[in-house]
Input
Amino acid sequence: MGPFPVLMTLGALLLSGCGERAVPSIEIEGPTMGTYYSVKVARPPVGMTADALKLAVESVLDRVIAEISTYEPTSELSRLNANPGTDWIPVSPELHAVVAEGLRIAELSDGAFDITVGPLVNLWGFGPDARPEELPTSEQIQAARERVGWRKLELRASPPAIRKTRGDVYIDLSALGEGYGADRVAADLDARGVADYMVAVAGTIRAKGLNAKAQPWAIAIEEPLADRRAVHRIVPVSDRAISTSGDYRNFFVKDGKRYSHEIDPATGAPVERNLGSATVVGERAIVVDGLATAFMVLGEQRAPALADSQGIAAYLIVRDGDAFRGVATPAFDAYLARSMPEERAAGTAEQPE
Ligand code: FAD
Output
C-alpha cells in the first residue's frame, strides 16, 4: 500500500518500459472517487511542474465529483436523486452528457447495463450505504426493482434537462464515472499542449502518444484473482482508452457464497457467472468503462456476441475450473498480436499504489 489509503482496484496496471533511453517525465498520483488516480506525462511542455500538474488534475477530478458523485451529498447528481419531482429538472451539460452515454449503453446492452440500478447496488451494500448484516430479502429486492429501469428517465438536450417518470428513481453513474473523469483529465492535458500522457482513474486508463521510453504505454490486464495481483497479459495502448471490470476486488462472502458488485437488473442480485473480468479498448474512457461493466453483467455467453456485432475490442477472462481462458473479439486481435503473455511481463509491473 502506498502513501494514501486506496481501494484495491482492477485490471490495468502501468508497466515500466524497457530498452530505450528515458526522456524527462512527470508522474503524480493521489486519492480520488474512493479510489486512486495516477498521471504520467512524458516530454512535458516547458515549465510544467509536478505540483502544477497535480493541482490541475485534482481540480478537474474534484469538479467531476461535484457533478456526478453519489457519495457526495451536495453533488449535482445527489441533488437530482433527492428531488422527488417528475417535472423536467435543468442540469449541467456535463451531467447531461454522462447520463446520455449511460442510457446509450443501457439500450445497446438491452438493459444489462442500467444507470438506475443504484437502489439495488445500495441494497446489496456496494454503494454509499453501509452493508447490511443480512442478505436482502426478496421483498426488499422487489421493492428496489420497482424503482429501477433506464426507460424511467427522459433526456432533453436543449436546454439540458432530465425527467424522472418516478420521483424515486435514483441514478448511479459509478460504472462509467471513472472513465468520464479520465476523459476530462485527458481533455485538460490536451488543452495544455501535452502530447504524451497516461491518465488512470482506478482500472480505467486514457493513453496518448508514447511513454518516456518512446514506446506505446504498456498496460497490464490482471488475472482475476482476489488474494493477490498477477499479470495476465500486457497490452500496448496509444491514443486509446482501456478499462477492466471484474468480480475479484469488490465482493463479499456470506455463508460460503461470493457476491460481487455487478448487479443484474433482470434478477436484482449480483451476477453469478464464470466471467472473471472484461477489458474493453476504445477511443473514449467513459465508453470503455461502461461497456466493461455491461459485459460483466451480460456474461461470457452474451458479451462476445454483442461486442462482435458492434466491432468492439474486448478481452474476457473466463474461469475454467482453476484455470483462466482468454476470449478476444476480432477487434481486440490487433492488441493481442502486440501483447505479451504473463511470463514475459514478470517483474515489470509497476503497481499504482
Ligand atoms: P465498474 O465495473 O466500473 O462499475 C461497477 C459499479 O457500477 C458497481 O459498483 C455499481 O456501483 C455499478 N453497477 C453495478 N451493476 C450495474 C449495472 N448492471 N449497470 C450499471 N451500473 C452497475 N466510492 C467510495 O467508496 N467513496 C467515494 O467517495 C466515492 N466517490 C466516487 C465519486 C465518483 C464521481 C464516482 C464515479 C465513484 C465514486 N466511488 C466512491 C465509487 C467507487 O470508486 C466505485 O467502486 C467505482 O466507481 C466502481 O468502479 P469499479 O471500477 O470498481 O467498477
Observations:
- Residues 10, 33-35, 64-65, 68-69, 71, 113-115, 117, 121, 126-127, 172-175, 177-178, 202-203, 245, 250, 261-263, 265, 289, 293, 297 surround flavin-adenine dinucleotide (CB under 6 Å).
